[in-house]
Each structure stands twice: as C-alpha cells, then as structure tokens.
Design brief:
Keywords: Calcium, Carbohydrate metabolism, Glycosidase, Hydrolase, Metal-binding, Signal. The protein is built from 13 helices and 22 strands. By secondary structure, the chain is of the alpha/beta class. It has two domains: 102 residues, Golgi alpha-mannosidase II (Immunoglobulin-like), CATH 2.60.40.1180; 343 residues, Alpha-Beta Barrel (TIM Barrel). The strands form six sheets. Strands 2-3-6-11-12-13-14-15 form an eight-stranded parallel barrel, surrounded by four helices. A six-stranded antiparallel sheet has the order 1-16-17-18-22-20, covered by helices on one side. It has a two-stranded antiparallel sheet with strand order 4-5.
Length: 479
Amino acid sequence: MKKQKFKICLLTALLVGLYSCNSNDDFVTNSTEAAAQFKVINVTNHDGRPFSTGKQSNTTGRYVANPGGGVMMQAFYWDVPAGGTWWNTVNSKITAWSNVGIGSIWLPPVSKAQNGPFSMGYDPTDYFDFGNYNQNGTVETRFGSRTELESLITKVHTENMQVYADMVLNHNSGGQLENNPFTGTQTYTNFTGVASGKFKRTSADFYKNSYGNNDEGAFGGFPDLAHVVPNVQDWLWKRTDGVGKYYKNTMKFDGWRFDYVKGFAPWVIKDWNANVGGFSVGELWDSNVNLLNDWANNANSSVFDFACYYKMNDAFDGNNLNILNDDMMWKRNPYKAVTFVANHDTDEIWKKELAYAYILTHEGYPTIFYKDYEEWLNKTKMNNLIWIHNQKATGNTSILFTDTDEYIARRNGYNGNPGLVVYINNSSTWQERWIQTNWTNAQIKDFTGNSTWLPTTQGDKWVKIQCPPNGYSIWSINM
C-alpha cells in the first residue's frame, strides 16, 4: 500500500509540474506573440525632463510645479458674452482651476480694437487701451475694464499661475483715412490719433512702403504692419515703454500667444523674445511638421501642434489609430510643442475624451479649451486627466502597440517618477492586451478608475491590461 501511495503521489507531482510548465509556456507564448505583433517605437530620446514655461516663484500660491509639467487653459472662446463681464467671469474661476492643477491661462487680445464693445480683439487699434479710454464707441473692451483685467492678472499670480496675452502683430484696424504716397490712394493707415498717444502709426509703417511692397502675408484686407520699419520695432519690442515691455513689466503678463505668424517672418518673434522675454507660442496654422519645427527653431518659440491636432482628428474620428504613429511636432521637438484638442478657431474632433486622454498623457504642453472644460465634457474626468498629467506623465515616450482600434504608449519616467502606460480603445468592446512595462514585480492600477484590475507585472516586466470600449485606461505603479 505504501508503494502504491508513493506512485500516486509521484504521478500527481509530475502532472502538477507538467501543468505548471505548460502555464509558463502559455505566458511566454502570449508575451512573445504580443511583442511580435508590434515593434516598439521609441518616439523621443531625451533626458526626460518636463516641458517648462518658466519658473513660478510665488510659494504662497495654490498651484505648485509638478513632475509632468504644466497645463494651459484657453480662457475664452469665440464670441464670449459682450458687455464687459468676461474678465470677472474668468477671475471667478481661477482658484478652482489652480486647485485642479491648471498652471496657466491664455487670454484673448486685451487692447481696444476697431469693433469696440463687440470686438474679440483681433482687429487692434490702440495697443495701450485696455478698457480705460473712450475710443471706438466704448471705454471698456468687450471683456471689461483695465481695472478688471489687472485684478484678474493679480488673482492669477496669487494662485502662482501664469497668464499669457494674445498678441496680434500682423495687422491693425480702426485707423483714419490718409493720403498714402506709396499707393497713390487713400488708405486707413493713420493711427496718429490713438487715445493713449502711444505707438502712433502712418502709412510709412505699413506695406506697401519705402521698405517694400509686402511681407510674408496680409490678413483680411487690414493694414499690414511692416516690422522692418524702425518705428514699428521700437514700439513693439525695443522701447522700455513699448508694447512688449509694457505688457510684461507694467501689466505683468508672463508670456505670449502670437496670432497669425504666417503673416510675417520668424525673426520678428525671435527679436521680441530676445528683447522682452517670457513664454511664447505661435499660431502657425499648418499640419506640416517640417514647417512647424523650422518656424519654432527660427523664432526661438513654441508653436501649436497642428500636426498632432489633425492626426488625432483622422485617427479618432476616422477610426484608424495607426495614424497616431505619424509624425507630430511633439515627437519632433517636444519642448517647443503646444498640443490642443480645440480652440476658438477650429473645433473638428468629435471624440474629444480620447483626444484629451492622448494629449494629457503625452509630451508637449497640453492646452484645454474653455468650452470643453466648463460646458461640454465631464469635468470630473477632465480633472482626473489633469492630475494624471501632472503626477504621472513623465519621461520620454515609447509606442507599445497600435492597430485600427487600439493604441498603447508608455511614458518612461523621470527623476524617480515611474511614468505611465496609456491604453486608448476606439472600439465598441472591452479590449485586453499583454504589454511590457518598465516595472518588475510591481502591482499597477488604472488611475482613471475605468478598470478595477490590480495586476502585478512579471519578472520580465510584462503584464496584461484592459481598456473599456470607446475609452481609455492609464496605468502606473500602485502607490
């Protein structure tokens, strides 16, 4: 009987061992198959440091620097309510934005424009009228008074956030008729009567003039500023009491969003930045990454990543996430790329939640559109993504897998922060996939809460994760 029991025990042990080996073989096979399906793409190669917009030094503010870098809020949309209430509306939201981790706001053009109380500011008349002169049919701008603007800027700085001014340097509007010796006609180029008495302009300051017939581009038939003219350079960025330095040193703006930079050469922004300083980003509306990157380097400025914007639109709404492998500005030059899902000019992406999950887990400087955050999307989910960006989206980027419906990427961590893995699923069913992390024998979790799994990575760093339909999950070490 003892010998028979021994044989049974031995047989049982062999079967258990065989089962154990088969299970391990299954895991290895699955891991190998997963690796073979997609060759990992190391998208960026740098030391992993986050995007920087400059140092926030107010240690009493609510917003503090974070491992993932900053998030910007575009604090307006086209045709915000007129009547001079907008500065106060934004002011009332600053503390809440700061509390959830938004580090900066971008304001619309702040100076008086031709259309007075109805203008969104993109037809500037007097760069020094912030709603304090009776000009163009109003004292206040569409957004409010100078006092209200200054109160808003002070509130932003109290919260240790930054505030960026939208600068329209290509064209002016609202001048008076004058005889133009360069065209032989009358043109609306007489700005000598601006109420502030500063930056007076005549036909000599606009194309066509003694310096040439045109520059890179004109807009809407408005008088086209000639930046080669010494008077224009002096008043825009050289003089201590000129536009740039007055906005920075007196109005206390921290940086600039430059409108329609296709209208003039990049040296204009380069000279502005060299003389004035502050964060800067240009609106070069083009999906060509080479143009975006060349402009950013030549202007010494960040640039909006329109390449990323259009690729996201094609990928998410066109149902082909393989497109996310294509070139984008954040891949080419992550420290000069400002990413976005929508803005006041263009709003084409339908699957916005997936797009925000993408830009808030990837490199570059992500921008949130006011309407998306305050009105159209789930604010709780947006706040969660902002938190994940700030706390987990660190290091350079590797794409682990893509197909038409699935996209998985890894942020590789920086300075002790473990980074993350983001899984985006554009299909109508739950998806699961084995992927390789940077973490050995570590329990991970989905910080969005969309998955309740708490898997542990294997010794070779592989782990299976899941993603909900038409959604995303974002994984990192559970700590």
